[in-house]
Amino acid sequence: MTKQIRSLTRALNVIETLNHADRALSLHQLHQLTELDRATLLRILATLMDAGWVYRSLGDGCYRLTFQLREMGTHIRPENSLAQLASPILEALQKKLHWPSDLMIYNGKRMEIIETTRRQSPLFLPQGFMGYQPYMLQSATGRAYLAWSHPNDCKVILQRLQREEGPDANLAHDEVWVQKILEETRRQGYAERDRNYFGGPDDSNSYEVNVVAIPIIVMQEVQACLNLTWIEELVQPEQLEEVFLPALRAAADAIAQRLLTHELY
User: For the purposes of burial, counting CB atoms within 10 Å of the CB of 82, is it exposed (0-12), middle (13-18) or buried (19 or more)?
Assistant: First the structure.
């Protein structure tokens, strides 16, 4: 009888567990599901990450299967592939500017954070959270997505917002205001969040937060949006045009190129 390789069996168990999960899994969740002790599990995960099979998110520290496994038929969510490809670029952007960025996609209802460098930024106390969904018409990322989407796609999104309840619905009914905001956004080349918007994970009564966002465009379609968040009183006004926006655009272009190279669009 051929002897089994226990370490390989355990590694395959971890991959199978991640493959069947409908979300990323923390170390504790993997420990409970696989019944492997934490030390063994950490060694397996480290090996799988080195081999390019598993990816650990910057934003929540959870584990996901990598986009390289798509061709093997494993269950890889497109947003996980996007987040994995973008994470080195986001990390480099945060090290350069020190302020955190979020990578967001449109999930069919709102923009949603799929990766973030909030945990890596030493200058930002609120951590925010993966999966957070800001309002479309008040957030910088929502405005960026709408402004650079195809007009027909933008129209459909606005019509859906009009049928809902809440701030987005009220604003979406003011079509003149919406078009003015989107035209101004395209003209200046980036989106800003509504100055009256308050209630997100970054907001505080102690300081004012500012956010800008730009689209990540591949094959003439908006694939995601990238933002930058900072505390207003700690940044000089000229830094936006001279430092922040050039770095943000370079990062968005680099992410778009990686998506194009790997045909993830």
Answer: buried
Nearest partner of 224 among 25, 18, 26, 84, judged by Cα: 84
Listed in order, strand segments (DSSP E) in 151-260 are 191-192, 209-218, 221-231
Average pLDDT value for residue range 102-127: 84
Work out whether the CA dihedral 18, 92, 221, 155 comes out positive or negative.
positive
Q: Is 192 helix (H, G, I), strand (E, B) or coil?
A: strand
C-beta of residue 4 within 8 angstroms of C-beta of residue 40: no
Residues 157 and 44 in one domain: no
Which CATH number characterizes residue 30's domain?
1.10.10.10
When pLDDT is averaged across residues 256-261 and rounded to a whole number, the result is 92
User: What's the CA gap between 58 and 3, in Å, rounded?
Assistant: 39
CATH number of the domain enclosing 178: 3.30.450.40
Q: Which amino acid is at 208?
A: E
- The mean pLDDT value for 205-229 works out to 92
Q: What is the Cα–Cα distance from 25 to 30, expressed in whole angstroms?
A: 6
- Let me know whether 179 and 59 are in one domain: no
Q: What residue numbers bound the domain in which 59 lies?
A: 6-72
pLDDT at 199 over 50: yes
Q: What's the confidence (pLDDT) of residue 59?
A: 82
Pull the structure tokens for residue 164.
Answer: 């809902």
* Number of domains into which the chain is organized: 2
Reported as type and span, the H/E element at residue 42 is helix 38-50
Q: Do 94 and 121 sit in the same domain of this protein? A: yes
> In this structure, are 139 and 245 located in the same domain?
yes
The Cα–Cα gap between 237 and 40 comes to: 50
Predicted local distance difference test score (pLDDT) of residue 1: 47
Average pLDDT over residues 84-93: 94
Give the bridge partners for 230, in sequence order: 210
Report if residue 1 sits inside a domain: no
